[in-house]
Write a structure and sequence with these properties.
With 611 residues, the chain is an alpha/beta fold. The protein has two domains: 228 residues, no CATH class; 214 residues, Spore Coat Polysaccharide Biosynthesis Protein SpsA, Chain A (Alpha-Beta Complex). Helix content is 55%, strand content 9%. The chain contains 22 helices and eight strands. The chain has an eight-stranded mixed beta sheet, sandwiched between helices. Helix 11 links the parallel strand 2 and strand 3. Helix 2 runs parallel beside helix 20 and helix 4 packs antiparallel against helix 5. The C terminus is likely disordered.
């Protein structure tokens, strides 16, 4: 283990950004376990109830389904969601009245949607003579339940105020054409393979790689993103990259970073030597209580190519430091680097040529872990999948929402035009990238721009980081809800942000879903249930495992496959942290009508200041 790993084990990072005081409350490590225990009790009671002889006559599908469907359900999804809604609301952050109203809102809205599904099924039976399958109904109910959860949490949680997102329309014809063609091909491949009856599919099911789902459903998204990835790599490979090394400013927000700040600055100095242009490093010492300032000053004096200075920012908060750095920037281009990031030698020289294209507004790359600590191997696969595969692929249709602030390059005028980095909430890096994209500029993720980014080495540090990260999607969606509910039709606002919210709900429910599936299989109240143990295991092993292998190979990091078992376990832990993060969101007594709020006076497009 390296010295850096030894130092990481001593870190227990906490800052004002860990739980913004207006939007998040503290969550004890026992809150989620207690919530899961109540959830299991509620679920078990209801599963027993619907399988009693008398009640089973009312609900022959052994779920709260009020119309006849063909087939059987894979899981009693409505019982699952109602149990989750009640348990989650009971342990969410808020007073008793707020939590009660939240739980009631979740359950009643969900049941109303289910009533519509069942009524549509009755009408289909009467008019067409055939009903929807129970499998289809379960999928529809599940997706609707995820949406209800995420949007009700957005409505009832204390969230950042909505701003008017500046939108400059540009032609989306190329992106839409690409998206339409790739969707059609993915659907065609999925249906073709689904109709082949391959023996390989049965083998994969037996190895828990499909868990009982059809190969067509399983293949659609990987084939879609695989095509987009190839198109994005083509764009990166054919982009004009003349030598371009204008002066750049690098802002580095630093809070108690004495253990690594010397390595961070030295890495930037090596990158500056390779770059050949002027590199100005601004270390934004953000209320540090250790010797970060002294070490940074000494290291800057010894740099061979980079030059810089330390600027003290006494007001705590990363965005405060970033905005002070933005004010001090005197160059046309701005590089943001986290204090725990070691940039690669070619990062500046590879990123800057993209800006010779006037349509490019943001450039980023792929973080890699330093290695040697508890979570580093799992994190390697995580970044290869998320940043090295999905983010790269979304660039093919100009659909990148955010580029992480570990290493990212902007045109300085854009953050200034947008009022700087938002303060007092989580996700300031995604917020600024998203809004630059809405100005009509392209975000590039180059998978060959790689840099070393610190990975927490302790459970408590990882928990703090992930709760902060996972809360950010709600903060961003609330602040930029203009994109979701406003009149401008954009891929980010109408598709990607809602998908991210729904996906966050799915991830928050992953651990409860595993518990519920185990209950249905283990207690076996319904002797006709199709659930097998492979289905339960496949929730965490099937598609994620195959996508991780593909991402490792595409990124030229085959050794990442060796970390697959750790990655699959880490995904469950990550889901658990998501649940804890959602429990930390402060719940209000009253719900805000997000759509009607579009017509009200709104906050101008400027930073939120911490009260």
């Amino acid at each position: 283990m390296s010295d850096l790993d030894d130092k990481r084990e001593q870190i227990n990072f906490v800052s004002v950004d860990s739980a913004p005081k207006r939007f998040a409350g503290s969550v004890s490590e026992w809150q989620a376990p207690k919530m899961l225990a109540v959830f299991a009790l509620l679920a078990t009671t209801q599963l027993w109830f619907v399988n009693t002889d008398f009640v089973a006559q009312v609900f022959p599908n052994r779920d709260y389904v009020f119309s006849t469907h063909s087939g059987r359900h894979a899981i009693a999804i409505r019982i699952f969601l109602i149990s989750f809604f009640v348990a989650f609301a009971a342990f969410s952050s808020g007073d008793f009245r707020g939590r009660s109203m939240f739980g009631l809102d979740l359950v009643l809205t969900f049941l109303a949607g289910c009533a519509v599904f069942d009524l549509a099924n009755v009408m289909a039976e009467d008019i067409l003579g055939s009903s929807f399958s129970l499998h289809f109904s379960a999928i529809a109910s599940g997706l609707f339940g995820f949406a209800v959860y995420s949007f009700k949490l957005l409505e009832r949680g204390f969230m950042p105020a909505r701003i008017r997102v500046q939108h400059i329309p540009v032609s989306q014809m190329r992106a839409l054409l690409r998206l339409g063609v790739t969707i059609a091909i993915a659907a065609g491949v999925a249906m073709w393979v689904g109709g082949l009856g391959l023996h390989l599919v049965e083998v994969m099911r037996s190895l828990t790689l499909l868990g009982g789902i059809g190969p067509g459903v399983f293949l659609f998204l990987p084939v879609l993103f695989g095509q987009l990835y190839v198109l994005a790599i083509y764009d990166v490979a054919t982009a004009k990259k003349p030598k371009f090394n204008p002066p750049v400013s690098v802002i580095v927000p630093a809070h108690n970073e004495s253990y690594i700040i010397k390595d961070t600055i030295n890495a930037m100095d090596r990158a500056a030597q390779h770059y050949g242009g002027e590199v100005n490093v601004l270390i934004m010492n953000n209320n540090s209580t250790d010797d970060t300032e002294e070490i940074a000053r000494e290291t800057l004096l010894s740099c061979k190519a980079a030059k810089g200075r330390v600027i003290n920012v006494p007001k705590p908060g990363k965005s405060n430091a970033l905005n002070a750095g933005l004010d001090a920037c005197e160059t046309e281009f701005l590089v943001r680097v986290d204090a725990d990031t070691l940039v690669g030698e070619d990062n500046f020289s590879r990123a800057m040529p993209y800006f010779t294209d006037p349509s490019v507004g943001v450039v980023g790359g792929v973080p890699v872990p330093p290695g040697g600590a508890l979570f580093d191997r799992a994190r390697l696969l995580e970044v290869l999948v998320k940043h090295g595969f999905y983010s790269v692929a979304m660039g093919a249709v100009n659909g990148v929402v955010g580029i992480p602030g570990m290493f990212v390059v902007y045109r300085t005028q854009h953050p200034r035009q947008l009022g700087g980095f938002v303060e007092g909430m989580n996700g300031e890096d995604t917020d600024i990238s998203l809004r630059i994209g809405e100005l009509g500029f392209h975000s590039v993720v180059d998978p060959k721009i790689r840099y070393i980014s610190e990975v927490p080495s302790s459970y408590s540090h990882m928990r703090e980081q992930r709760m902060r990260w996972f809360r950010s999607i709600y903060h961003i969606s609330s602040r930029c809800r203009d994109l979701i509910y406003g009149p401008n039709v954009t891929l980010r606002g109408k598709v990607i942000l809602p998908y991210m919210l729904v996906n966050s709900a799915r991830r928050a429910m992953l651990v409860p879903l595993i518990i519920f599936g185990t209950l249905e299989w283990g207690v076996a109240f319904n002797e006709n249930t199709p659930i097998v143990w492979q289905s339960i295991v496949a929730v965490t092993t099937g598609a994620p495992a195959i996508v991780a292998v593909v991402a490792s190979l595409l990124n030229g990091v085959p050794r990442g496959i060796l970390a697959l078992p750790e990655y699959l376990i880490f995904r469950v832990l990550r889901a658990y942290f998501t649940l804890e993060s959602m429990l930390s969101i402060l719940i209000d007594i009253r719900a805000e009508n997000l759509e009607l709020a579009i017509r009200r006076d709104i906050v101008p497009d400027k930073p939120i200041r911490v009260a």
